[in-house]
Amino acid sequence: MQSEPILRVEGVSKSFPGVKALDNIDFEVYPGEVVALIGENGAGKSTLMKILAGAYTRDSGQIYLRGKPVELMNPFHAQQMGISIIYQEFNLSPTQTVAANIFVSREPRQKGLGRFFGFVDRRRMEAEAAKLLKVVGAQAQPDAIIRSLSVAARQQVEIAKALSVDASVIIMDEPTSALGDDEVKFLFQNMRELKAQGRGIVFITHRLEEIFEVADRIIVFRDGQRVGTLSIAEATTEKIIALMVGRVMDEIFHKEQVEIGEPVLEVRGLSAYGLVEDVSFTLRRGEILGISGLVGAGRTEMVQLLFGAVPKDSGEILVDGKPVDITSPESAMRAGLGLVPEDRANQGLVLLLSVRNNTTMPTLDRLSHYGWVDRKAVDAAATDYVTRLSVRTPSLDQKCMYLSGGNQQKVVVAKWLLSNPKVLILDEPTRGIDVGAKAEIHALMSALAKQGMGVIMISSEMPEILGMSDRILVMHEGRMAGILDRKDATQEKIMAYATGQTVEGSIPA
Amino acid sequence: MSQMTAQESSKGQAAAPWWRRAFRGQELGILLVLIGMIVIFSLLNNRFLTPVNLTNIMLNFSWTAIAAFGATMVIITAGIDLSAGSVMALAGLAAAMLLSPDHSTLLGPEGEASAAVIVLAVAVGLLIGALCGLINGLLITIARLPPFIATLGMLQIARGICYGWSQGWPVQYLPQNFMILGRHNFAIGSFNLPLPSVIMLVLGIIAWLFLTRTVWGYRIFAIGGNMQAARLSGINTMRTQTMVYTIAGLLAGAGGVLLTARLGVAAPTAAIGYELDVIAAVVVGGTSTSGGEGSILGTLIGAAIMGVLRTGLNLIGVEAYWLPSAQGLIIIGAITLDQWFKRRRGQRGGLSRMFAGWLGRSA
């Protein structure tokens, strides 16, 4: 491009404990273009976006707006500087009107005495809002309450809000993920108009086909680095996928050869309206089934559904060939399932309680007589599993809130092992834990499979999925996009399924 | 092995003397407050530390404490029960209705009641209490009302039934063998221990065992600490919550029946505002309103603090008009102290962790 970029990011890095989220990133947006920013989960897209929003501070590097270096102090400041971000979960106050949301913190005041008392000039605010809504072609009335609007209408309100601050850069984080086809077309129309006004648009998406429809340029991130830039003319799906996944597999996984046995879990047509559609698979004894997919593909929802934590609309579940009626986590546990949830602190553990009480929580019935807790049995069971999984804790009385992430995770795993499940489901079991604990959890999964347990593992880390799984189920937008055998699985194939492409030479599910 | 295993350290902990462990307990702070208050009042008035006065104080907080044991469980689940006072009144009224010559057809010609009728009346009182609690529980779990709203509704409904059923008149002339429940004393040396206080202690021990030694108690702490994690651990959270409110209703009913037996009359206006005394006893006793933490012993001490305050101020000649203000100050003061202690403990942990992290980095 010949013109000067509106926004230029130079050599920006950002680290979190244990992760380098952004590593010396360059990024630029020109006036009048739509630049697509793509990458796997954890590639650094959200981190960059949050830095541009002023929500995170960068560790190093420089940001230039229209050639001048700027410091983005906070989200309000970033907006004042002309950067507007439209998040997936919008930033709107659901109980207030459209006009109030568009002009939040900049409400026009009444004249005269009203101004002195801080009265809002509602009529003027709604008139201004109506003009902006007309520009984006929104149907919503300025006095409508946000809560009553559809997702598409809310998005239009967000765009109107960006226009009201005269944003020169508009960043849209997966704006199409919750829209229908017509609504997507309309959004693209809006994007083209914004572009024609000379604004720069950053478009983050997981759907590759949309890029070809609306983007002018593609920037690919991987593992916190910018690995490629493609103009739309030279881009192909294969090139993009190759850039997204092209990493060297250097991690070693504790994967043992295990004889695969009889089916232990059969799932047929599992659905919950709007979350998961028609998922079917069979898990065998000794098998580790990896579940892959991009964030928001419905993986967590699917296992929560399987575990009875979310009510299902239809579907059959068989354990050891017998149909089981799973309506609650309690019944899932009785049927022989265990779930190590994604969010340790909020779903996996009662942080206020001790290691002892957390470890024995699902199995108290077995460790008691007529409701009277056998404290010796509880101590013995907790000590046994805490030692076996080498949980590092000063004592069984230690509250779980004081344990490290890896040790917390081991407590969650311990509590389910104690219940002796036939199927253990682990949702992102190694997220945010250190390398040593991670290897221990991998070794444990292999050992459990060897004992004949069926293991389901959700992971957003491609090497982990490829390294640990016997088969890989890939999800895309709430559906199964495909199942791959270990010997056939490659990063490219998984990524193609995960982005909704059809893959040649393999059978889509 | 480089790490300390759980086994080694639990042995280490067993070696710590009992008083060391007791001093770590969360009840320590408020126990010191109680002892401090007793010392101050006995220095200011030499009639304070007499057997008669002490047993009198104990009697006066018996019903509050009994209802507060149930409220402790409710508050540990991060809930609240505003209906305790009204449920006490309704349960007491229900028992009295079966025993008053003006209303009951179960009595003898002189208005005397057989043992069976007494047992029936007490049982009906307790059941009415439990039923109110059960309805609270179902409103919270099935109808998904916030506990505050459900029990606020029950507070009014139960009180309304009291007025309507009694037509506003006190139900009286209750038989002697019923009033014994509230008035009997056990002589132990120079102490005349009132029966309601003995019942309070027995129920306290049962509640303590229930909460700390049974699977239901474990589950109450689990759902109060993190409802979602408890549910995902296979705990039936709806059943546990319903049970907790039912127990709270049952215990409020027991307090109400004892109060009626003591007074010898069931007024529709009985126990108005007691729900606040009950909640005060629980929170002064160190139970956290955000759930997951608390104890029956703490609640007993909390109820005792409120009882000592009431009688103590009276003895040193403070007009009764000022009592509510003093109670308010004690609630705020005790909880401020408690929070302060907790924060200090937390900070020390935070500092030592920071220190360890700093050492680790430089190593």
Task: Summarize this structure briefly.
Chain A has 509 residues and is an alpha/beta fold. Chain A has 3 domains: 7-82 and 167-245, P-loop containing nucleotide triphosphate hydrolases (Rossmann fold, 3-Layer(aba) Sandwich), CATH 3.40.50.300; 256-336 and 421-509, P-loop containing nucleotide triphosphate hydrolases (Rossmann fold, 3-Layer(aba) Sandwich), CATH 3.40.50; 346-420, no CATH class.
Q: What does this protein look like?
A:
The complex is a heterodimer of chains A (509) and B (363). Chain A is 33% helix and 25% strand. Chain A is globular and about 75 Å long. The mean pLDDT of chain A is 89. Chain A folds into three domains: 7-82 and 167-245, 3-Layer(aba) Sandwich (Rossmann fold), CATH 3.40.50.300; 256-336 and 421-509, Rossmann fold (3-Layer(aba) Sandwich); 346-420, no CATH class. By secondary structure, chain A is of the alpha/beta class. Chain A has a six-stranded mixed β-sheet with strand order 6-7-8-3-9-10, sandwiched between helices. Chain A has a six-stranded mixed β-sheet with strand order 16-19-20-13-21-22, sandwiched between helices. In chain A, helix 5 (122-135) crosses helix 6 and helix 14 crosses helix 15 (405-418). Chain B has 363 residues and is mainly α. Chain B has one domain: ABC transporter involved in vitamin B12 uptake, BtuC (Orthogonal Bundle). Chain B is built from 16 helices and two strands. Chain B has helices spanning 6-14, 18-24, 28-44, 51-60, 62-76, 84-97, 115-141, 147-166, 176-183, 195-213, 215-225, 227-232, 237-263, 274-284, 296-315, 323-362; strands at residues 185-188, 191-194. Chain B has a two-stranded antiparallel ribbon with strand order 1-2. In chain B, a hairpin with a 2-residue loop joins strand 1 and strand 2. The radius of gyration of chain B is 23 Å and the shape is globular. The interface between A and B is large, with 45 and 32 residues.
